[in-house]
Write a structure and sequence with these properties.
Layout (H helix, E strand, L loop, with lengths): L3 H25 L7 H43 L21 H9 L14 H29 L5 H13 L2 H13 L6 H5 L12 H8 L6 H14 L2 H9 L4 H12 L1 H17 L2 H6 L6 H6 L1 H8 L8 H36 L6
Amino acid sequence: MATKKEEKEFEKERKKYLKERMKRMKEEGLEKYFTPEQIRYNRNKRIIGAVWPIFRFLILFGLGFVIMYPLLFMVSTAFRPNAEMNDPSIVWIPKSFTLDNIKQTATVMKFDIFSGFAAKDNTIINTIYLNVISSVLQVLTCSITGYGFARFKFKGRNVLFAIVLLMIIVPPQITTIPLYLQFAYFKLFGIIPLYSGGEQLSLINSGLTMYLPALFANGIKAGLFIYIFRQFFRGLPKELEDAAYLDGCGPFETYIKIMVPNAKTSFLTVFLFSIVWYWNDYYVSSSFFTENNTVALMLKNLDANLQQQLFQGQTVSVRQIIVWLESGCLLSIAPLLIMYIFLQRYFIEGVERSGLTGM
């Protein structure tokens, strides 16, 4: 077997030979070796080969600019003094940098991580509690549901899976009112009023409004997560389960000992997706929470809070408070960016191996 050095030498000699051969053919005339159609085909191929890299660069550069422009503008504005926003000589790089915008916005959004671990008083801690617990519950229940759809045949499986697809298609606005009524007058099939003297139990402003749907595989984007797990488990060899059954494992034990270790990347992918969607959600949160503070709700109400706390209730234009608004956006996405930086390799691997690639 040839070494890498020998392979490089061989490739170098081959390219040199092809170059000399082409030069000789041009000197003698290409008509002697190729038909007119072949000559035309080779000429068009060379033109396309020369133009395509330029066209591809322009496409990627344009897409990169569209994606990166908001982030670059956010960073440039968040660390810029407010007085420099009206300076026409400043485009991207401010003349002086300041952290006052970040500090003031963090105070308004209750982002002070050193103020204690009271969930209702700290936006970051409260959001992490809701996100992590809901995401863990959702990953567990969606994986079990996806495994059931992928490996077991039972009556009504196609109907139930059609309902799962409807969970992906139907927007959450359709189900918010029934869910709100269910949580506002929580009866648990009439058991709670029976033992509480007829008093109603309300779960509004409680984390249970997030935890219970996740526990029953009905949380935010749960239908998509079930589909991802179903596609992944369908791609695993059936022989793995047959071998486990021969060793005396039941369905649940097979899932724990065989399926879960092989689906680690899919678990991580779904967990990251769930974290991101719970982190960015404000519609469901604003429907069930009036007191709990989350990052998305704080960002949604940042304009009003800034006018109330920073400008003593005075109405100001967006141009006057743009530096604080961009600081709030930067604070909101910073945890997700940090998480993605450290888990990027595993996330990409999970996307490639999961059902997102049409596996």
